[in-house]
Amino acid sequence: ALLSLQAAARRSTTALLSILGNLFICTIILRDRKLRAMVTNHFLLSLAVADVLVGAVAIPCAQMTDAGLPQGRPSLCLLMICTLLIFTQASVFGLLAIAVERYISILKPFQYLSLMSPQNSVLVILSSWALATIIGLLPLMGWHKPFPADGECNFDAVIEETYLVYFNFLACMLLPLLAMLILYGRIFLEAKRQIRKVAEREVDVSRQARRRLVLHKELRLAASLFIVLFGFILCWLPLHILNCLKLFCPACPIPDPLVLATIILSHANSAINPVVYVFRMRSFRQAFVAAFSCTWHPLPASTPGRFSTSGLTPSNRLELASRNSSLPGK
């Protein structure tokens, strides 16, 4: 009983931190026109909304189902269980969209405007949420175990391990995560190649310094977003490993404290992202400082000229300018 109370307290704390932290991120993006114009922030906003819903809806639902509630209402029970599956899958698709956007920005700058317009980003976000909802609601559509005779609602007693392992983990989570790791690998290699290429050019010093600065900023942004992805993997992988163990080795003993720890760790992922944004991204860090100093000054990242109103990132604009300049080797 003491273990359950401690777990409930940790879950509640995690839920509160997830709600407050991600609402703060949403507020920063929505209040600043220049931040809203950045396509990357569209996907960060979607990711923050998913994390808010995890704290406000999914974690309370998980606590209720752990207590066996609601009793005798199978459809409501499955719907409550599926909320976490939906929001987690939306996060996976959001992370994948961010990786693709960064890849296009650095490796295909000439196609960026046509592929990553604000309208296309909204379409991608809506499609991702629709697909995540379908995937997460499959247990409600019939892919579940027979309900216990006592009518209690419990995740392990209701959700099929085959759905969790073969479909939810291997197909819908592991494959996208592998694709993201490959994309970020290409991004870092290309960014470093461009920085080295600029350093070797004998061009105007101010132009060279500006180009190197922009490329370093793009690389830092990609690194920050990779940390978000890495945190997601670290928080969710232990729980999925236990699910695989339950499926492939039913007789293997799994201590209850270990199960609770992996569940709380997976929930904690929703509270981690705002911390990464604040410590790694200047615009969010400035807004965080301003919020606690009771002022809200325009963010340095939002000053005119840093991001063009056309939606191009700095590296895109610089790449286009350099292609049309008279630099050696062009």
Automatic annotation (TrEMBL):
Its main location: membrane. It is a multi-pass membrane protein. Pfam families: 7tm_1. The chain crosses the membrane at residues 12-30, 42-65, 77-100, 121-143, 163-187, 219-239, 259-279. Keywords: Cell membrane, Disulfide bond, G-protein coupled receptor, Glycoprotein, Membrane, Receptor, Transducer, Transmembrane, Transmembrane helix. InterPro entries: Adenosn_rcpt (IPR001634), GPCR_Rhodpsn (IPR000276), GPCR_Rhodpsn_7TM (IPR017452). GO terms for cellular component: plasma membrane. GO terms for molecular function: G protein-coupled adenosine receptor activity. Residues 21-277 form the G-protein coupled receptors family 1 profile domain. It is found in: Cell membrane. Coiled coil: none annotated. Belongs to the G-protein coupled receptor 1 family. This is G-protein coupled receptors family 1 profile domain-containing protein. The lineage of its organism: Eukaryota, Metazoa, Chordata, Craniata, Vertebrata.
